[in-house]
């Protein structure tokens, strides 16, 4: 049993939790809790290490057994150590280190989401969760977004990371991805007030939707890529919506239109 926070494995986990640089360099990230660990296991994601305590319930033990059956190293840690490294108020007794290897984009996507300047981790995670629920085929993160693999984003994503292609790209890479997607994608930009009302837009053809951050909106690069702007009318007089709320409205409007043919 590991009882010291100075243990090498524990120090590695703490770095992965705290530093985006460590996650990028090592190609790993950390998940906490039974539900996320269970989803990662069922999705077939590669785990490098599992830490657990003796407080693990039967569901958590089944997840631990599933990982160990695949040959994943596991270490029991003390409650003190788990509390020291956990980013949750009430640790559930299991934590896993996974390889960052998201699902690939489909060769002919017809529904992509581009995020520009979404800096709040909670908002980003919520958008990823909504995108997965709405049937988005891939999320492209432009420069300036929060780290998609940070603990807060992963926690707010509620398992979306295991079901959704997520790519962090520079602007040239992003444009190349759109042009090489093999299908003609109409690019819409969500705006606070400009363009047509979202209910008047035709979202049935293949498309990419750009959603910018709340503070400054989408940048000049997004503006140059967009073919049209859409906005959400707000008769109550508000200037703008939370980015995650706006994305949810727009993404499910795409699905509503497509489900009706």
Radius of gyration: 20 Å
SSE string, helix = H, strand = E? HHEHEHEHEEHEHHEHEEEHEH
Tally of individual helices: 11
Biggest sheet: strands, sense, closure? Answer: 7 strands, parallel
> How confident overall, as mean pLDDT?
93
* SS content category: alpha/beta
Give the beta-strand count.
11
Helix content: 25-40%
Report how far apart the termini are: 58 Å
Regions with pLDDT < 50 over 5+ consecutive residues? none
Strand order in the largest sheet? 7-6-5-10-8-11-9
Portion of residues in beta strands equals 15-25%
Query: What spatial form do the alpha-carbon principal axes imply?
Result: elongated
Structure description:
- The model has no long low-confidence stretch (mean pLDDT 93).
- Helix 6 (121-133) links the parallel strand 5 (111-116) and strand 6.
- Strands 7-6-5-10-8-11-9 form a seven-stranded parallel sheet.
- It has eleven helices and eleven strands.
- With 261 residues, the protein is an alpha/beta fold.
- It is elongated, with a radius of gyration of 20 Å.
- It has helices spanning 8-18, 20-26, 34-42, 58-69, 79-85, 121-133, 151-157, 160-163, 171-179, 220-225, 243-259; strands spanning 28-32, 47-52, 74-76, 94-99, 111-116, 138-141, 166-168, 186-191, 196-197, 207-212, 228-231.
- It is 39% helix and 20% strand.
Break the fold down into its secondary structure elements and pairings.
Layout: H1 8-18, H2 20-26, E1 28-32, H3 34-42, E2 47-52, H4 58-69, E3 74-76, H5 79-85, E4 94-99, E5 111-116, H6 121-133, E6 138-141, H7 151-157, H8 160-163, E7 166-168, H9 171-179, E8 186-191, E9 196-197, E10 207-212, H10 220-225, E11 228-231, H11 243-259
Parallel strand pairs: 2-3, 5-6, 5-10, 6-7, 8-10, 8-11, 9-11
Antiparallel strand pairs: 1-4, 2-4
């Amino acid at each position: 049993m590991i009882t010291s926070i100075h243990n090498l494995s524990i120090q590695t986990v703490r770095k992965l939790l705290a530093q985006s640089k460590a996650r990028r360099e090592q190609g790993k990230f950390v998940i906490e809790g039974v539900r996320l660990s269970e989803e990662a296991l069922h999705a077939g994601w590669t785990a490098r290490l599992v830490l657990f305590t003796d407080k693990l319930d039967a569901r958590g033990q089944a997840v631990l057994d599933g990982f160990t059956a695949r040959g994943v190293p596991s270490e029991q840690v003390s409650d003190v150590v788990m509390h020291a490294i956990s980013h949750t108020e009430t640790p559930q007794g299991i934590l896993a280190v996974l390889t960052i290897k998201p699902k690939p984009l489909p060769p002919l996507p017809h529904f992509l989401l581009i995020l520009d300047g979404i800096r709040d981790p909670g908002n980003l995670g919520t958008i990823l969760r909504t995108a997965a629920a709405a049937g988005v085929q891939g999320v492209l993160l432009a420069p300036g977004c929060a780290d998609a693999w940070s603990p807060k984003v992963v926690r707010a994503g509620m398992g979306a990371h295991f079901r959704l292609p997520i790519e962090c790209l520079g602007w040239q890479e992003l444009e190349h991805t759109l042009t090489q997607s093999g299908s003609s994608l109409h690019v819409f930009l969500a705006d606070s007030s400009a363009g047509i009302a979202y209910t008047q837009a035709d979202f049935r053809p293949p498309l990419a939707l750009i959603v910018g951050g709340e503070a400054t909106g989408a940048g000049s690069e997004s503006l140059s890529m967009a073919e049209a702007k859409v906005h959400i009318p707000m008769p109550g007089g508000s200037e703008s919506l939370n980015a995650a709320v706006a994305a949810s409205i727009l993404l499910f409007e795409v699905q509503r239109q497509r489900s009706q043919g």
